[in-house]
Amino acid sequence: MSKLSLLKQKIASHLKTFSRRLSELWGKLRETPVSTEELHISMKRNAVPSPGFFLMLGLSGIIATLGMIANSAPTIIGAMIIAPLMSPIVSVAFGLAFMDLRLILISIFSIFTGTLLVIFIAYMGIEVIGVRIVGTEVLSRASPSMLDLGVALAAGCAAAFAQTRPSITNSIAGVAIAVALVPPLAASGIGLSLGAKATSETGLSLGEFGLYSGGYDIAAGAFLLFLTNLIGIIVIGTLVFVAQRYGDWRKALTAVAIISMLSFLFVPTLQETLHEIYVKNRVIRLAVKRSHSFTDNGAENLAQKIESVNVNYLDGMLNVNIVMFLTREHMEGAQARLDDFRRVISEEIGEPIAMEVDVIPIDFLRLRSSQPKPTK
Known about the structure:
The protein is mainly alpha-helical. It is built from 15 helices and five strands. The protein has helices at residues 3-29, 36-47, 51-69, 73-82, 86-98, 101-129, 136-139, 146-163, 172-178, 182-194, 215-243, 249-263, 267-289, 299-305, 334-349; strands spanning 133-134, 199-200, 306-314, 317-327, 353-362. The longest helix has 29 residues, at 101-129.
């Protein structure tokens, strides 16, 4: 036998030994899943709309509403942590895995009543406080996209898996932060209360954000975000339970297929919003790249001049609105440069667009102060 053959045999022997030892180590470290009986008891307990459930959810709704009025992200995160709404949603997924109709109905009742509670609290909060300005925390939840669906799927997978492993059950709080459930409902209540009186804190009309009906569009968009998260968690959660041999996979897959088909009713809206995000990104990148479109001072200065970029569809036409600062000497010939810039953007994204630039003229003044040189 040649030396090469002996070397191959020795390597193969070492690989087999390493593989066996690694398998033995993994077997020792591998955690035993929660039994079906224990998990069933836990899911039933989580599904029941107890007084504690409504108390914590109500407090979460109050915190989320106040956080959105104050435009405070940390406050809203706090509302996500204490919200117990994730529990009945995961219970729905578990119920679908077994086609346990009683568990499913109890869980849906908890979700439905909890949803109404948060929306009512947010609605009344705005009515009592009387604010009419919506900040970025509210607006950011008015236009869900396919990215939000991706987050919901990942979070639903984590939530379902965490329920089956005792050592990582505590990670459910992190999942609640990752996928927002209460904040979109609070935003819906805020939008319903504001109605057509909603005003952007940036000074732009809500129509420039694609919210032509004001608060009602905010309410609809935020509730769509909630539905996206809800369906995403239920679908992927059911699949995770079935993959771990909980329940009847035939019945579960039938239910998942039906829910997935229903979700296609709002997928086009999510895709459209994702396209708007893509267009906004392309506009900013090309604005910086083609700095000569508005100024000759370089791309870095142009990036600093752009205040905001808003993208939306109006009558089937993609509209791009840019708010920017310009010194007065760069305003001459701006219309021709805008036409050229719009043509480049249209070619880049492959569809016709209408572009509007709101220019805020500024006068540039440079002052300098330095230490005088000492006299000899």
